[in-house]
């Protein structure tokens, strides 16, 4: 295609992604499930198509998506639930790959154990994008969101390492369990070390760059690629390096970055996520012609058996594993039980939700597309086209099937976060922060700074005390409420309405000044930014004004 054709193609893709997001926001359907269906529809039409290049996905697409997810994760929450996350992201991935490998070797004509393990490793790691989007929208409990997110951060490294070992065995390099385990541990440890090294370098740069949000943003955008390329150059896990770097940088960002830098970086990464995820899910659907093209050499029975083994293992092993690990006694050191830090076992409803959250995505397709065409002896890689098709079916079944039904299932289970409790915790933290500010001002006053007029201190103290009174009043209302949802205060909602009306009137007046030539555009932008920051402090929900307020 010409350059103009590529530009038109990209613009059309952006239009589709935006349109699907608009539909998803109004229907409640996950965009991650709708976009692959549109991609399939486009792939069936005549015209140019884009084939999935695994090197591009693994080098340019995967690092920023993983890094952004890690930045927004909680390192402390992942530590608290580490046993569960490791159980899902390491042990379950390994069991899934081995089960599919054994099934292929026993029941699929012409398939080898190594080839089966390769496709098993490709389909084993869930891509949590669709499940997290739905879970956040319908208010899943924070712990379930942490488990889904933590699993998605770590399982790719496990799967890609297993895939590398399986491909080496299938192409004639042989297979040794001890050497495979040693390689896995070395790759994982090296990836974690590379990620820590990059995060340390970023933290050193953060303080001198804190005053310039643009430079801090540039460093943030470069970080995932630096971590990935460093790890790959050292022949260790680039995926794990990106995750570790993101977790550490995200944990230290509140201390090392400025407020302006955090606001800008957050906005940039939200845009990157939105566009990359949209393109990725469209790209998944467009791979249909490539994966169907080579199936002519297989009989129908072989295809059906291979697909049944792959899809069946993916759908059944996850709930079985979760139920099994819940049932083990404490003496066997259950992965999903109460550990030394007092983490509770998962409930039956939480197990059901986690079981249905294992949607697969572009990582599975990118991994399986890395399979070589021939083995070391020059013979065709055993069953490569069949492995591609099985992976595509798993991605489609889980992404569309589970993605579209996840929200109704969670609602049926009655799983949702205790918003009242979360609001109460936030107001307690707000009150504590204002009390700390008042104490600091009192200290400042006691030190008798002659260059600070007393009225300045008294004005600031008065504003803080008014804010503290508002937080404590809200806190008292939350403590008295028995509902899971925060109580609605007519007075508070009326105040939100008044503030929005006031900000809107200020904006309109500034625009009138600009249009009349009394205020230059650069001055308008400065004043608009002030109003934007003030509006950003208001809750995202629309104001609900009581007629009696």
From TrEMBL:
<feature type="domain" description="Cation/H+ exchanger transmembrane">
    <location>
        <begin position="15"/>
        <end position="411"/>
    </location>
</feature>
<protein>
    <submittedName>
        <fullName>Na+/H+ antiporter</fullName>
    </submittedName>
</protein>
<feature type="transmembrane region" description="Helical">
    <location>
        <begin position="184"/>
        <end position="202"/>
    </location>
</feature>
<keyword id="KW-0813">Transport</keyword>
<keyword id="KW-0915">Sodium</keyword>
<keyword id="KW-0472">Membrane</keyword>
<feature type="transmembrane region" description="Helical">
    <location>
        <begin position="386"/>
        <end position="407"/>
    </location>
</feature>
<feature type="transmembrane region" description="Helical">
    <location>
        <begin position="31"/>
        <end position="50"/>
    </location>
</feature>
<dbReference type="GO" id="GO:0015385">
    <property type="term" value="F:sodium:proton antiporter activity"/>
</dbReference>
<feature type="transmembrane region" description="Helical">
    <location>
        <begin position="85"/>
        <end position="107"/>
    </location>
</feature>
<feature type="transmembrane region" description="Helical">
    <location>
        <begin position="300"/>
        <end position="324"/>
    </location>
</feature>
<feature type="transmembrane region" description="Helical">
    <location>
        <begin position="113"/>
        <end position="133"/>
    </location>
</feature>
<dbReference type="InterPro" id="IPR018422">
    <property type="entry name" value="Cation/H_exchanger_CPA1"/>
</dbReference>
<feature type="transmembrane region" description="Helical">
    <location>
        <begin position="153"/>
        <end position="172"/>
    </location>
</feature>
<feature type="transmembrane region" description="Helical">
    <location>
        <begin position="351"/>
        <end position="374"/>
    </location>
</feature>
<feature type="transmembrane region" description="Helical">
    <location>
        <begin position="56"/>
        <end position="78"/>
    </location>
</feature>
<keyword id="KW-1133">Transmembrane helix</keyword>
<dbReference type="GO" id="GO:0051453">
    <property type="term" value="P:regulation of intracellular pH"/>
</dbReference>
<keyword id="KW-1003">Cell membrane</keyword>
<keyword id="KW-0406">Ion transport</keyword>
<comment type="similarity">
    <text>Belongs to the monovalent cation:proton antiporter 1 (CPA1) transporter (TC 2.A.36) family.</text>
</comment>
<dbReference type="GO" id="GO:0015386">
    <property type="term" value="F:potassium:proton antiporter activity"/>
</dbReference>
<dbReference type="InterPro" id="IPR006153">
    <property type="entry name" value="Cation/H_exchanger_TM"/>
</dbReference>
<comment type="function">
    <text>Na(+)/H(+) antiporter that extrudes sodium in exchange for external protons.</text>
</comment>
<feature type="transmembrane region" description="Helical">
    <location>
        <begin position="6"/>
        <end position="24"/>
    </location>
</feature>
<dbReference type="InterPro" id="IPR004705">
    <property type="entry name" value="Cation/H_exchanger_CPA1_bac"/>
</dbReference>
<keyword id="KW-0739">Sodium transport</keyword>
<feature type="transmembrane region" description="Helical">
    <location>
        <begin position="267"/>
        <end position="288"/>
    </location>
</feature>
<dbReference type="GO" id="GO:0098719">
    <property type="term" value="P:sodium ion import across plasma membrane"/>
</dbReference>
<keyword id="KW-0812">Transmembrane</keyword>
<keyword id="KW-0050">Antiport</keyword>
<feature type="transmembrane region" description="Helical">
    <location>
        <begin position="237"/>
        <end position="255"/>
    </location>
</feature>
<dbReference type="Pfam" id="PF00999">
    <property type="entry name" value="Na_H_Exchanger"/>
</dbReference>
<dbReference type="GO" id="GO:0005886">
    <property type="term" value="C:plasma membrane"/>
</dbReference>
């Amino acid at each position: 295609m010409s350059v103009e054709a590529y530009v038109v193609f990209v613009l059309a893709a952006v239009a589709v992604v935006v349109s699907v997001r608009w539909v998803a926001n109004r229907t409640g359907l996950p965009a991650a499930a709708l976009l692959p269906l549109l991609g399939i529809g486009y792939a069936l039409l005549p015209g140019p198509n884009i084939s999935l290049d695994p090197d591009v996905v693994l080098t340019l697409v995967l690092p920023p998506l993983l890094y952004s997810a890690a930045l927004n994760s909680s390192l402390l929450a992942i530590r608290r639930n580490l046993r569960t996350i490791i159980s899902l992201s390491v042990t379950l991935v390994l069991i899934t790959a081995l089960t599919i490998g054994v099934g292929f070797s026993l029941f699929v004509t012409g398939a080898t154990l190594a080839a089966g393990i390769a496709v098993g490793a490709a389909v084993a790691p869930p891509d949590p994008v669709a499940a997290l989007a739905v879970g956040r929208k319908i208010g899943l409990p924070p712990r379930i969101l942490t488990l889904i997110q933590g699993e998605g951060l770590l399982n790719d490294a496990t799967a890609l390492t297993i895939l590398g070992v399986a491909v080496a065995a299938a192409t004639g390099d042989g297979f040794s369990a001890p050497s495979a385990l040693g390689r896995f541990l070395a790759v994982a440890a090296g990836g974690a070390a590379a990620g820590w090294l990059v995060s340390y370098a970023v933290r050193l740069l953060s303080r001198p760059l804190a005053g310039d949000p643009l430079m801090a943003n540039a460093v943030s955008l470069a970080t995932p690629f630096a971590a990935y390329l460093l790890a790959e150059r050292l022949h260790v896990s680039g995926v794990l390096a990106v995750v570790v770097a993101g977790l550490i940088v995200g944990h230290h960002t509140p201390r090392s970055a400025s407020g302006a830098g955090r606001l800008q970086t957050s906005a940039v990464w939200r845009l990157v996520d939105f566009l990359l995820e949209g393109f990725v899910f469209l790209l998944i659907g467009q791979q249909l012609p490539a994966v169907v093209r080579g199936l002519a050499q297989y009989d129908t029975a072989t295809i059906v058996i291979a697909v049944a083994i792959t899809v069946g293992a993916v759908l059944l092993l996850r709930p079985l594993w979760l139920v099994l690990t819940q049932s083990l006694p404490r003496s066997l050191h259950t992965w999903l039980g109460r550990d030394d830090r007092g983490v509770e076992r998962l409930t039956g409803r939480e197990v059901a939700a986690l079981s249905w959250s294992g949607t697969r995505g572009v990582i599975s397709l990118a991994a399986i597309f890395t399979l070589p065409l021939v083995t070391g002896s020059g013979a065709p890689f055993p069953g490569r086209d069949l492995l591609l098709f099985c992976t595509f079916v798993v991605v489609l079944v889980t992404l569309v099937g589970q993605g579209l039904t996840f929200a109704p299932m969670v609602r049926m289970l009655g799983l949702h976060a205790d918003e009242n409790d979360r609001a109460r915790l936030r107001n307690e933290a707000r009150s504590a922060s204002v009390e700390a500010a008042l104490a600091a001002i009192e200290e400042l006053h006691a030190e008798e700074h002659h260059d600070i007029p007393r009225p300045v201190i008294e004005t600031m103290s008065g504003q803080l005390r008014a804010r503290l009174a508002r937080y404590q009043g809200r806190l008292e209302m939350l403590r008295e409420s028995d509902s899971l949802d925060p109580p609605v205060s007519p007075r508070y909602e009326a105040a939100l309405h008044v503030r929005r009306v006031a900000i809107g009137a200020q904006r309109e007046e500034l625009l009138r000044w600009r249009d009349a030539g009394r205020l230059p555009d650069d001055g308008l932008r400065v004043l608009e930014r002030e109003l934007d920051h003030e509006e950003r402090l208001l809750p995202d929900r629309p104001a609900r004004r009581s007629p009696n307020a």
